[in-house]
From TrEMBL:
TM region positions: none
InterPro entries found in the cross-reference section: Flag_assembly_chemotaxis_eff, Flagell_FliJ
Cell location: Cell membrane
Descriptive protein name: Flagellar FliJ protein
Lineage top rank: taxon: Bacteria
Family: Belongs to the FliJ family.
Chief site of localization: membrane
Topology term for the membrane: Peripheral membrane protein
UniProt keyword terms in alphabetical order: Bacterial flagellum biogenesis, Bacterial flagellum protein export, Cell membrane, Cell projection, Chemotaxis, Cilium, Flagellum, Membrane, Protein transport, Transport
Amino acid sequence: MKFRYHFQKVCDLKSNEKTQAEWMLSTAIGKLQTEEEHLLQLLNDKNELIQVIQTATESTASVSSLQEMQRYVHHLDECISRKNTDVKHAQVNVERNKTFLNGKMVDEKVWLEARDKAKIKFQQEMLLREQNDLDEMATVRFAAKAGRAM
């Protein structure tokens, strides 16, 4: 007789939920990385522009071009501020998804351990049945030999 766990569909469901939570975490991490890359690009753009402004102030640059570059630096500062907020939101989302995944992993583990315990119990019962069958066969043989010996 083969082991069949009555709650196997629940185990499968918990495994699928864990897999889905892993995908959600992976997506959240990808989004965080993208946001961080955009932030880094903005910071690099700002640093490059500041270098250009410093070079322009050392040479004979017009006041209007310096003002225009300064307005762009201010715009980049605003973009950096918004991107920092986006990065923080993405980090919160990653942490939320990690917590969710941990819960799903624990839930799956509980059901898998219950299945393993049920399988061990089944195997012990099968061994006991087999031993009882062997004992009964030995008793019948003994009784048959004892009946012939008389």
